[in-house]
Specification:
By secondary structure, this protein is an all-alpha fold. 72% of the residues lie in helices and 2% in strands. The chain contains 7 helices and 2 strands, in the order βααβααααα. Helix 1 runs antiparallel to helix 2. The longest helix has 23 residues. The chain starts with 5 loop residues before the first strand and ends with a helix.
Length: 170
């Protein structure tokens, strides 16, 4: 395997994050059953996360030893504004999902993200966003009956109305 002599922007931070995440997962795996026996419920998760800790530490050491790349810029090469904005939108979506519910939150997220990413008209963004939302809703809520946060939309009444239409009004 070839070892790079220079590290990219953000690579050291990412290697440190992986090490910390691996240590946290090892701690969580230990919490399952501790070191009771090799056949304990936590044995496989602990072995797996221990391997993650060892390899992530090796990666961290190798990354730390590499010289920083002179030309790299973190916010241009690793985290451009477009990705940061979509990530912020995803975080806002996660926080708004419970109080507003799946339908309005997803509609707003899809429409705004399509508008931002495609730079097309609002009519196009609204059309594609709502069409996608209807497809997603039908597959997950109606076909697979996945419960989604209802929020401010009276979802039960809407589903009852749709079912009455599909059953011929009976």
């Amino acid at each position: 395997m070839q070892h790079p002599e220079h590290r990219k922007p953000g690579e050291l931070i990412f290697a440190a994050f992986l090490t910390c995440a691996s240590l946290f997962l090892l701690y969580s795996a230990y919490g399952i059953s501790g070191f009771e026996s090799l056949s304990a419920p936590g044995a496989i998760p602990m072995a797996t996360t221990f391997a993650m800790v060892v390899t992530s530490i090796l990666v961290l050491i190798r990354t730390f030893r590499a010289k920083p790349e002179a030309e790299g810029r973190f916010f241009v090469d690793v985290l451009p504004a477009r990705i940061a904005i979509i990530a912020a939108m995803l975080i806002a979506y996660a926080f708004a999902l419970q109080p507003l519910g799946f339908l309005p939150t997803s509609a707003i997220f899809l429409i705004l993200s399509i508008k931002y990413l495609t730079q097309k008209s609002w009519l196009f963004s609204i059309g594609i966003g709502l069409f996608s939302l209807i497809g997603i809703y039908m597959v997950f809520r109606i076909v697979f009956t996945v419960l989604m946060p209802a929020g401010i939309v009276p979802e039960g009444e809407i589903l009852a109305f749709i079912r009455s239409l599909l059953s011929g009004g009976n």
